[in-house]
Specification:
Elements lengths: L2 H10 L1 H20 L7 H20 L4 H26 L11 H4 L3 H6 L10 H9 L3 H10 L6 H19 L8 H8 L1 H10 L14 H8 L17 E7 L10 E2 L2 E2 L2 H9 L1 E7 L7 H10 L9 H4 L8 H6 L4 E6 L8 H8 L3 E3 L1 H4 L4 E2 L2 E2 L1 H16 L5 E6 L26 H25 L6 E7 L11 H11 L5 H4 L1 E7 L7 E3 L3 E2 L3 H9 L21 E2 L9 E2 L3 E4 L8 E4 L12 H20 L7
Parallel strand pairs: 1-9, 1-10, 4-12, 4-13, 5-6, 5-9
Antiparallel strand pairs: 2-3, 4-11, 7-8, 10-11, 14-15, 15-16, 16-17
Helix pairs in contact: 1-2, 2-3, 2-4, 3-4, 3-9, 10-11, 19-20
């Protein structure tokens, strides 16, 4: 479309001009988000919503019509831009609930900007030009006068009626789809965003008296063993939980041109209990969600971060369970405690103390907190103090330096990767994880030197994925294929390591069974000899169960789950879902069943219902 044609169309038929512009922007969003990209149906799915907005402006606005068009254009453009950027970071379709995250975005601005291709900013070019037009008095006057021309109200009603009908046609038949990305593609992005706001948000909760541990175990299809293996094998020991930032399982044993990337992690894996098929179960809250799931053995909420949705509840938790056994508890994180509402979460979980940025200070800051070296050096002093008492302790230590976008300072880049890794997200990730492993090794050595190691049960796991498939360009996907020896898949993406160190256990074992973060609490309770008979939990002891089912949320479409053989990703429902083998051997033959799909959804509903039924804790 020529500049002259655009000018004429803007001055005579603004509704057509703005609709065409927004269609182009929709095509850009579809290119980024949907696997098949845009098609001719994009026109029928996106433009009707745009026309509804503009018809309402034409009908009701008698003055300042140009301003209303500009505001509407800016609003819908911002929605499409947010969809693009959110998908690049999370792999999901953003909706209104993400507004709760606005105060978190500034803290991770480096991560957001690292994903922004300059071409995405072109989505705002028309807005900038139109605002600039206002500074040219004569041109602005001509345009504003054009917008005062009367329109045929019958034509507006006709367009509005057809557009409403098309929107309903796009939305209503597709409202039952499980997969949010599929649903947005079937409805159209703007229709989907409106649907999310207007749809019935009420969840049908299960009555609390019907939620029992026996019910959960029945849905999970497991039975408690008469005599649990390793029960009490770590009784009376301290518990140290190490939550490693963005640590994925492919790092275990990884060497690049003779350089071992995580030698300290590798040694832990070889000498202790290692679960290779272990998976994240986090959502909007990422690291804080991992803290919630591990400490409660419950699933994240259907919408929002657990720290914002569940922090007001009296949560059954690992700190409370251990307190009943005489333990004191503390958690360590170098960021401010207000980030992701952690202060309220820690109270709900029952931690005795927390240590945050005020304790760790501004020494050697990386991203938004002190480095892992500072984290471990200052934490070990507190651990030594607690270890000197007669009371056993539970501490959760949360590393953070290997945080997206992984651009750590040059002095912390301790390996020299091949040139093909330069200026790539994969290369930066591997260098940051190598540094994190280095700091971890120093911490382990310090624990051993102080005599804390031998008297402690140590659990190490990754908090969440580090390399989202949807954030990688072709070059980076090729690097991941080189590392894996095959295509990098969704199963690989959410696979994180779990290592359980129980000093005195002389049988290092690599376990094949499936596990998730929800399983940490019951696994630890078994080793420490603590009964869970009176504590609701949705995980299971990984040393005593071989079958597992792990519902997934947020990073994967609703209805997705892991079974012992594969990752299932839902489509509109089960029948059109996709199957990814856990082994990653490319065999896509279906292993999971619709019964497992139904049970995974039931487990999520049971967890949601249980947490909602809990009383609120009383603030002091």
């Amino acid at each position: 479309m020529s500049i002259l044609t655009s000018k004429r169309l803007l001055s005579t038929r603004p509704i057509l001009f703005f609709s065409f512009v927004l269609l182009l922007k929709s095509y850009l969003a579809w290119t980024v988000v949907f696997e098949g990209g845009p098609s001719w149906t994009t026109l029928l799915k996106e433009v009707p919503f745009v026309l509804i907005v503009f018809c309402l402006i034409e009908w009701f606005a008698s003055k300042r019509k140009f301003m209303y068009y500009l505001i509407a254009n800016l609003a819908m453009t911002s929605i499409l831009f947010a969809v693009i950027m959110y998908y690049k970071y999370y792999g999901v379709i953003v909706d209104y609930s993400a507004l709760q995250q606005v105060n978190q975005v500034t803290a991770v601005s480096n991560s957001v900007f690292s994903l922004m291709d300059p071409q995405y900013l072109l989505i705002y070019i028309d807005v900038v030009l139109m605002i600039g037009l206002l500074f040219f008095r004569q041109k602005a006057k001509e345009v504003k006068q054009a917008f005062t021309r009367k329109v045929n109200k019958r034509v507006v009603i006709a367009i509005l009626s057809v557009s409403v009908a098309l929107c309903l046609f796009n939305v209503l038949p597709n409202s039952a789809s499980m997969n949010e990305i599929v649903k947005a593609e079937q409805m159209g992005i703007l229709n989907y965003e409106a649907y999310r706001i207007l749809a019935n948000k009420n969840i049908e909760y299960v009555d609390s008296d019907q939620i029992t541990q026996e019910k959960v175990q029945s849905v999970k299809n497991i039975e408690q063993p008469a005599q649990a293996k390793l029960f009490g094998s770590a009784e009376g020991k301290n518990l140290i939980v190490l939550q490693m930032e963005s640590m994925q399982n492919f790092l275990v044993g990884l060497s690049i041109e003779g350089q071992e990337i995580t030698p300290n992690l590798n040694k832990l894996v070889k000498e202790n209990s290692y679960f290779k098929h272990f998976y994240q179960q986090v959502g909007q809250g990422n690291t804080s969600d991992a803290e919630f799931v591990v400490n409660t053995s419950m699933y994240i909420p259907p919408r929002g971060a657990s720290t914002q949705v569940y922090a007001g509840k009296e949560l059954p938790s690992l700190p409370k369970l251990l307190k009943s056994a005489g333990y004191e508890s503390a958690t360590f994180h170098t960021n401010v405690v207000e980030f992701w509402n952690r202060g309220e979460l820690y109270k709900a979980l029952g931690f005795d103390r927390y240590y945050d940025a005020k304790f760790f200070g501004g020494e050697d800051t990386v991203f938004f907190g002190a480095s892992d070296e500072v984290l471990y050096k200052k934490s070990i002093e507190e651990l030594a103090r607690m270890d000197a008492s007669d009371t056993p302790f539970y501490t959760q230590i949360i590393s953070m330096t290997a945080h997206h976008p992984y651009t750590i300072p040059q002095e912390k880049r301790l390996i020299d990767l091949p040139e093909r890794f330069d200026d790539t997200l994969v290369g930066d990730y591997i260098e940051s994880q190598n540094y994190a492993d280095h700091a971890l090794g120093e911490f382990i050595a310090d624990l051993k030197a102080r005599g804390i190691w031998d008297n402690s049960l140590i659990v190490l796991y990754g908090d969440h994925l580090g390399l989202p498939i949807y954030s990688l360009d072709k070059e980076e996907k090729d690097l991941m294929a080189e590392i894996y020896g095959r295509e990098y898949t969704y199963t690989d993406m959410i696979n994180i390591p779990l290592v359980v160190v129980n000093p005195g256990d002389e049988n290092p074992t690599t376990y094949e069974q499936l596990g998730g973060q929800v399983d940490v609490l019951p696994t630890v309770a078994n080793l420490l000899g603590l009964s869970l008979d009176n504590q609701m939990h949705f995980g299971q002891d990984l040393f005593n169960q071989t079958y597992n089912i792990l519902p997934q949320r947020y990073y994967l479409p609703s209805g997705s789950f892991l079974s012992s053989e594969e990752l299932f990703m839902s489509g509109s429902g089960f029948n059109d879902g996709k199957h990814y083998p856990i082994a990653g051997d490319g065999n896509s033959e279906q292993q999971s069943t619709e019964n497992e799909y139904d049970r995974a959804l039931e487990l999520l509903n049971l967890s949601d219902s249980y947490v909602q039924s809990l009383p609120d804790w009383k603030k002091e």
